[in-house]
Amino acid sequence: MDIEKVEKVVKKKRTKFPEKLIQEIAEAAERHNLDDKELDELVKEIKKANQRAGVENGEAVGTVAAQSVGEPGTQMTMRTFHYAGVAELNVTLGLPRLIEIVDARKKISTPTMGIYFDEEYSADEEFVRRIANRIGKIILNDILKDFNVNYANMNLSIEIDEEKVADKRLDYDEIIAKIEKAFKKVDIDKNLLSFEPTISDPKHAIRELRLLADKVRDLQISGVKNIGKVVIRKEGPEWAIHTEGSNLGAVLKMEGVNKTRTSTNDIHEVEKVLGVEAARNAIIHEAQSTMEEQGLTVDVRHIMLVADMMTADGKVKSIGRHGISGEKASVLARASFEETGKHLLRASIRGEVDHLTGIIENIIIGQPIPLGTGSVGVVMKDKK
Q1: End-to-end CA separation in angstroms for the chain
Q2: What is the CATH number of domain 329-369?
Q3: How does the annotation summarize its subunit structure (predicted)?
């Protein structure tokens, strides 16, 4: 059934539906082969349901949202779990993760990414493994066959394992170039390399050699900044990569990476790379999946309100004294939350005026709150 026909019926009922809902009605009408009368009845019922689902004027939505998120939050666990089905990656879940989200932490405890690929590459295991080795951190120690510290000659010799290089899909010449750039005194004979420390004081020669040995072992030869381990997983017909650490900007630039499905759990990084609207969606998604993982269902609208409050100013803010609660217009509301003395003192120095427009300040001074029945004022006109 065409959408225009449904739009006409909706208009006739003097109501307004979102585009997506109109589309769904049209699809349902086509699926069930509805005639005009039945379509009319369907729209009428949906209008009723839509009105029932709306929020009453003067409803204390903030309080309801706070209770609806806070109450299930008390039933959450405090542990850090292993990533679903992968032993090598840890990810913070439960209450600590929820606190991390609403606190809008700059540094989260376990940043991770889920990297997915475009259709033509998603089933190609070889391509995915090659990309995984470009993303994950690989140090020189991972591709060595032999590592020998010679204290008699005061030098260090290593042998690169060509099989490991091939297995990790790395370019041998690139590795050599990186080694030459990092170390001045290096002698290269095919895959045998020997290093000499720069010794300024003979007394500390052994220490210098040991430091050089550590530096050689830990030289990073491949990988994206801030990303450590990577795990390749087969999810249905396609391959995906899960990482420890996160760098959304660098990963999205890689060829074959699906830009719409690749995600990170670091909200500030989402904001930096994709903007505040994407960060709002990330807050909703992260909070909801944290709840669902614990088997708790919270209506998405409560979480949406939290996300809207956190991103209303065009940047992600926390819900604590450094964010939303600390920036309220009312002095009494700020003082009731945290650091009471500080807020009252500052307000008195500045000569601030509290207009008592919110809830908290009205409760403090014992007036009806401007919500529910308190949002209506009755005026009587006396007869002339």
Answers
A1: 61
A2: 1.10.150.390
A3: Part of the RNA polymerase complex.
